[in-house]
Amino acid sequence: MCPHCKKIYAPKSLLKKHMQFGCKMNPRNTTTFSCTFCPYKSIYKANMERHVSNVHNTGSLKFRCELCNFRSNYSFCVRRHIKTFHRLDDFQK
Question: C2H2-type domain: which residues (predicted)?
Fold first, then answer.
């Protein structure tokens, strides 16, 4: 049984994984990894690394915001960025 949230797991390997990564009541699991390019956050380092690689790949970024230096490999990310950061709902490129 998880000492933080009282959920029961069998086998013990699932309990161990839950306590290390999944239990929201475990104070050690409150650490988040924040993206330096956007508001994205994750409790998993691997998810953050994948996000940065997929969304903010610094190699050859195909799409860019015309209002600032934000760039992405995906047009939907630039549109979302414009809507979120520049508060322009109907901006179309």
Answer: 33-56, 63-86
Residue type, 43: I
33 backbone dihedrals φ, ψ, rounded to 5°: -105, 120
SS3 10: coil
CA distances from 21 to 26, 30, 35, 39, 79 (A): 9, 10, 19, 21, 32
Give me the pLDDT at residue 93, please: 47
Sign of the four-CA dihedral 14, 9, 27, 42: positive
- Distance (Å, rounded) from C-alpha 64 to C-alpha 77? 9
pTM over cut 0.70:
no
